[in-house]
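Lay summary. Proteins are chains of building blocks that fold into shapes, and those shapes determine what they do. In this project we predict the shape from the chain. Here is one chain we studied, written as its sequence of building blocks.
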Amino acid sequence: MANAKERFNQVKHILIVITLTVSVIAILQGSKFMKTYEWFPSESAHSFYPMEIVQADFILQDGTTVYVPDKRRVYNGWGKPGSSHSVGERKKALPVKLGIIWFSYREDKFFQGEFELPTSQLEKYFSQGVEDQLTGKVENWDIISVGMAPQGRVSIWLTGFGNTVQIAHFIAKEVNYAWIDFMPNVDMKRPDFIRLAIQEILPAAQREKLKQMGVPNGLWEKWNQPYNWTLDVHQATTTLQIIEYASGERGPYNAKFLMHDAGRPVPTVVDLHWKKSNGNEYQTTLYFEGDEIFKAFEKLSEGKPGKPLILDVKIDEDTFMAEAFLRDGEFILPLEDFSQESFSM
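And here is the predicted shape, written in a compact code that computers can read:
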């Protein structure tokens, strides 16, 4: 029996070696013909809700992995790429899966998840590129960012030549993770460390306001809620209109890659390039940083999803000052909670 068992184990070992060899050859042959692109990973989080990645890795089509920059506090802005590490080969296969675990400072929680990525959609974007609205030249998407939001929300964006589009979102699970493993060299109690970390990130007035608010439920849904709205600019001839959305997306107002069937999220930045009647060119940017614009969209759409809305922006050619209103066919809501800046080009 011993000899038979030994022979069986020998045959089993040989079969395993053959199987692994064939698998490796198949992977190598496949990767030989696999399309590769020049891109690098990055990370993102809203400035009000700082996060820190414990570990995150993209698994690529060829079976290799690329890490997402970790072990630093992330609060660079929702949808905006953070670190720009040159990770892996300059040109590499696209990712098919993401594995991530991170810490949410405002919630004092760890989240973890493993997600399948829409590879065919990634391939479509990378193969088509993104058009420069000023020159018509096709540029490359070159950053794949991982965004972390409260309640375990994860968003994936592509960024290229100043444009950003969201291509996937997921929900991670809250997990128990040993604090000593997260901060092995910190001689400080967990609550004190978190409090000091938030103090370093957020100004005092903002901390107090956010402390009173807590961490609201449904933030991701709020940032991504679509509305049927259009932009109308008065008293100025615009040559380019760039919109940043609450969803973290960014691009020209008429960009096809940002035209979703359900509508557009609430705008947080409206960047207008315009000409005076004498031909001089200027740039005026409006920053909607508070809740006012969200409440305006909600109020005019209440009970009527898909109702057409118009965001009016009026620019005074002499003072360069802008006014903004949100209206439907019946009501006009003035928008006052925004900052602006203008300069000549």
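What the prediction tells us: Residues 2-33 form the longest helix (32 residues).
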